[in-house]
Target: Related to Spo11-Coprinopsis cinerea
Amino acid sequence: MIDASEDEYEEGLLEELSSSPMFEGFRDDADSDAFLEFMDSNSEQEPSDILEFDQQVDENAWQDEGEGLDVLPEYTPTTDIIDLTQEDEVTDPEALEFGSEPEEELDEKTILLQNIQDLILATVKQIANCAEGKLDRIVIELAVDDLAATFGVERSALLVRASSKGIFCGSVLSIRLVNGTVIQGNDDQATLTPAGEDVEELVVEEDIGWVLVVEKEAIFQTLCQAEFTRINALRKPGIILTGKGYPDIASRQLLHKLSSGLPETVPIFALVDADPHGIEILSVYAFGSISMRHQNDGLTAERVVWIGVMLTELERRGVAAGDMLGLNQRDRKKLESLLRREDRVMPQLWKNELRFMLERGQKAEIEAVYSGGLQDGRQPLLSYVEEEMQSYFVAQM
Model:
C-alpha cells in the first residue's frame, strides 16, 4: 500500500483521472482548483442525500457510447437501495466472490450487485446538472473507486469499467481474448490494448528480447513507424506500449502480465519525460497508484528499468540549455510530494534526479534528444533508445 497524506491523495487522484481520455484537457491549475473546490463543497453531504433520486433514469442521460465508462445493459431494480449508513446492511466483501453456491446465495449476490449499480446511477443523477461538465465523470470515477475499495473487489465486479486508451506494437505478441478472438500485434502500426478482464492468454514468441513502455503517444508512433520492434541495433525483437500519458488500467494490466510472465532475462524498459509528472508515471507503472491501491497487486511491474530521459544525462550529452524547460509552481509542488514518498515506491536513484531538477530549476521532455540532429544517419531518438538498451545488456554480462 502507498502511504499518502490527504493532499497527496487528491493530487495523485486528480492526475490519474485528468489524464484519462474522458477527462482530456482537464489538467491545468485552474481546473485543478475547480475540482478540489467542487469536492470540498460536496464533502459535507450525508450519504442519505446522495441516495435520494428518481429511480426512473433516462439511459441517454448517463450512458455515453464510445468513451468514458462502459456500463453493462440496464436492468430493473428488484429491491430498495442499500443504505450504507446502517451498519447491519453492509455486506461482507466475500459475498461478491462468484462460484458454485446454493441458489439462494446467488440471488443475494445478484440483488447486491443491482443495488451497487443503483448507487452508481444515483451518483450520476446527483451530478447530472453540475455546472462543470468535466467534473461529472471525475465524481463518477471517485464513486466507483470508493465502492470497489469498500467491497474489496475490482471495478469490473461492479459492472462498470473504464474504457481503454493504451496501444501497443510488436508482432512477437498476440493476445487471446476470452471470447476466442485473437489480437495480433504489428511492427509498424498501433493496436488497441484490450481490458485485462477480457484477456484469456498472452502468447509471446520465444525470441523476444525486451519490452519498452513509453510515456507519450508521439514517441510511441515514431518508434512504431520505424519498426523499431524488429529493426534495431540490438537485433532483438520487442514490444512497445504506451498508456498515452498517465496510464490507463488496461496498459498497466498488460505491462504487469508481461513483467510477471516473461523470464528475468527479458528486461522491461521505461522511457518518460525528465520532469515530475514523467517520474510519477514511471512510479505508477512500477509500484502502482494511490487511488487504485486496493488493486495494485495486478497492476504493477516492479522490475521496470528506467532508461531515460534523465536531466543529468542530457547535460552530459550536450543538450543545449535552450532545449530545457523551467519548473513552474505546480512542478515544484509535485517534486516535493514525490520526494516525501518512501524509498520502496520512489527509489533513491529517482529521488536524486528529482533533487537535481529542483536544484537546477529545470526539466526536459523526451524530445530534447532531437537537439543533436541525425546520428549516423538515424533519428536521434532511435539511437538514444538503442544506446540505453545496449548499456543495460552490457552491464548484465
